[in-house]
């Protein structure tokens, strides 16, 4: 169904663009509150982490529904996540830190949640760079799949980063942590079942 | 009988009017002399009674009232910065009284209007530095806490002062959530509480305190991070032991008892060397003791501020 695939991809494109456009509009019209840069940074981070978790739900969703369609969106969702998180880091660097390299360095040297956030972004970079079909062919599927398991490390780190930023734990963290926990449980149970000689086979 | 006022929003003084208040008052006085008409200057000072103008902080430019009311931490009404403005209308501030007891010779329950009438109100323009690395400049109206403490006469055993916010989840829905061990508690050493900078604020920008800013009476300790300046106070207690404040109880490694503004003492979550002043772009250097070093540094002579953060 190439048509359906095309429609889905287009939908993904719109779904990724709309929040960005809305944020840009809110920024321009002063709707982001008294410290707009902080609100923008949080929105970009939360949306990026949301897209990352969404990327991870697509293949279980495909398996559970028996449809290939969720997989059509997987690469795009992953790239959107990366894009939002890069913008998140840039907004922090230039709006919060004012682009002051010395300040950025001293902050990164001291603050654990910043180190973790940067690490997760660095983990995602090779995945974004090798997200194209040609890269996958060049690497070989096995190596490619291994490399792309890093997305789990990035998601776990991302949820911890989000929790560390909050003064008291609240719904964004509870939401992302429960989605992540469900995804990890699904993968672990699946892996155990596939193990030869295990009861679930 | 004195009624604590609830001004409609139309009565809140716009900033540009506030900034011209002295010339306005002079103009009115002149007008009254000349024509025998016009508003009395006393009316400007309103229900807070006679407020002494002090030179305090006249060099600072106050943050607009809209930002002071719309951007605050008051977890009793929710954790978002605009939650207090959204939800604080549920707070009943009239009647209001403050119980002062513990190690004092004259314990008592003071009606708010008695406090306002009994102690000299002053305008004090103070910097406010939040531990979250944002700051404001706020024109408070209040009285020195030491006036109240002198009235109740602490005993020789008293070493610390503990403050408590109202605890009523019906009025303060945030208290239904298990975020902090309610009611909110804060504490000061007695000498900090007796310091002339330590204020019990009952108003800001020439008006009674907005509910979202801790009406009808709150503590203001300008050289400490904002969370020390406890809002909507109903109880003040003097005791011998150092108390544990609410944030200290939740995360002792992040929030200390002293919580003095100090650009040199690092915090695991926020950068404390600089701050964002609400309404400005960019960052400012955070000042030692929030700019009140010459007034308060003596209180901490010989103390390791890294350890007693």
CATH fold-level assignment of chain A: Four Helix Bundle (Hemerythrin (Met), subunit A)
CATH architecture classification name of chain A: Up-down Bundle
Question: What is the number of helices of chain B?
Answer: 10
What Rg of chain A do the Cα atoms give? 18 Å
Measure the end-to-end span of chain A: 33 Å
Count of discrete domains of chain B: 2
**Runs of chain B with pLDDT <50, length 5+?**
1-14, 21-46
Q: What would you report as the Rg of chain B, rounded to the nearest angstrom?
A: 19 Å
How many strands of chain A?
0
Q: Choose one word for the global shape of chain A.
A: globular
Q: Please name the CATH topology of the largest domain in chain B.
A: Sulfite Oxidase, Chain A, domain 2
Element-level helix/strand string of chain B: HHHEHHEEHEEHEEHEEEEHEEH
User: Low-confidence stretches of chain A at least 5 residues in length (pLDDT < 50)?
Assistant: none
Helix/sheet category of chain B: alpha+beta
Biggest interchain interface, per-side counts: A-B, 16 and 22 residues
Discrete helix count of chain A: 10
CATH superfamily (homologous) name of the largest domain in chain B: Oxidoreductase, molybdopterin-binding domain
How would you characterize the overall build of this protein?
The complex is a heterodimer of chains A (201) and B (309). Chain A has 201 residues and is mainly α. Chain A has helices spanning 2-28, 36-65, 69-72, 74-96, 101-110, 112-129, 133-139, 141-148, 150-165, 171-194. The two termini of chain A are 33 Å apart. The radius of gyration of chain B is 19 Å and the shape is globular. The longest helix of chain B has 15 residues, at 21-35. Chain B has helices at residues 15-19, 21-35, 41-45, 65-70, 83-87, 112-118, 145-152, 190-193, 246-250, 293-296, and strands at residues 51-53, 97-102, 108-111, 121-129, 134-144, 160-165, 185-189, 199-204, 207-208, 218-220, 233-239, 274-277, 284-285. In chain B, strands 1, 4, 5, 8, 9, 10, 12 and 13 form an eight-stranded mixed sheet that branches. Helix content of chain B is 21%, strand content 22%.
């Amino acid at each position: 169904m190439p048509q359906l695939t095309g429609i889905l991809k287009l939908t993904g494109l719109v779904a990724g663009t709309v929040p960005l456009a809305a944020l840009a509009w809110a920024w321009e019209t002063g709707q982001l509150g008294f410290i707009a840069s902080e609100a923008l940074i949080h929105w970009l981070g939360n949306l990026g982490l949301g897209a990352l978790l969404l990327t991870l739900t697509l293949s279980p969703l495909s398996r559970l529904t028996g449809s290939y369609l969720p997989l059509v969106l997987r690469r795009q969702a992953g790239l959107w996540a990366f894009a939002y998180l890069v913008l998140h880091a840039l907004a922090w660097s230039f709006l919060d830190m004012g682009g002051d390299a010395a300040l950025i360095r001293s902050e990164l040297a001291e603050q654990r949640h910043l180190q973790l956030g940067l690490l997760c972004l660095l983990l995602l970079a090779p995945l974004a760079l090798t997200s194209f079909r040609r890269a996958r062919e060049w690497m070989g599927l096995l190596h490619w799949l291994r490399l792309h398991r890093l997305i789990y490390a990035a998601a776990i780190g991302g949820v911890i980063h989000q929790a560390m930023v909050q003064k008291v734990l609240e719904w964004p963290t509870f939401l992302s942590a429960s989605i992540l926990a469900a995804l990890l449980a699904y993968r672990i149970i699946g892996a155990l079942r596939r193990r030869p000689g295990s009861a679930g086979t | 009988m004195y009624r604590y006022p609830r001004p409609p929003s139309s009565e809140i003084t716009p900033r540009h009017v506030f900034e011209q208040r002295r010339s306005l008052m002079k103009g009115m006085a002149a007008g009254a002399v000349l024509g025998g008409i016009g508003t009395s200057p006393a009316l400007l000072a309103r229900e807070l009674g006679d407020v002494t103008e002090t030179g305090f902080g006249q060099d600072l430019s106050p943050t607009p009232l809209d930002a002071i009311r719309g951007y605050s931490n008051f977890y009793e009404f929710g954790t978002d910065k605009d939650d207090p403005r959204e939800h604080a209308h549920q707070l009943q501030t009239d009647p209001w009284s403050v119980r002062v007891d513990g190690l004092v010779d004259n314990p008592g329950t003071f009606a708010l209007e008695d406090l306002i009438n009994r102690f000299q109100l002053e305008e004090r323009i103070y910097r406010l530095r939040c531990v979250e690395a944002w700051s404001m400049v706020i024109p408070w109206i209040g009285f020195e806490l030491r006036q109240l403490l002198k009235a109740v006469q602490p005993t020789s055993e008293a070493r610390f002062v503990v403050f408590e916010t109202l605890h009523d989840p019906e009025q303060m829905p945030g208290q239904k959530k298990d975020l902090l061990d309610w009611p909110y508690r804060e504490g000061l050493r007695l000498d900090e509480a007796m310091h002339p900078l330590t204020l019990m604020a009952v108003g800001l920008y020439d008006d009674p305190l907005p509910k979202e800013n801790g009406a009808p009476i709150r503590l203001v300790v300008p050289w400490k991070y904002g969370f020390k300046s406890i809002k909507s106070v109903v109880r003040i207690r003097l005791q011998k032991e150092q108390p544990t404040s609410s944030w200290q109880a939740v995360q002792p490694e992040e929030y200390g008892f002293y919580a003095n503004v100090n650009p040199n003492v690092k915090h695991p979550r926020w950068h404390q060397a600089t701050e964002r002043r609400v309404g400005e772009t960019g960052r400012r250097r955070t000042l030692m003791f929030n700019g009140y070093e010459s007034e308060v540094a003596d209180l901490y002579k010989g103390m390791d501020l890294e350890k007693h953060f």
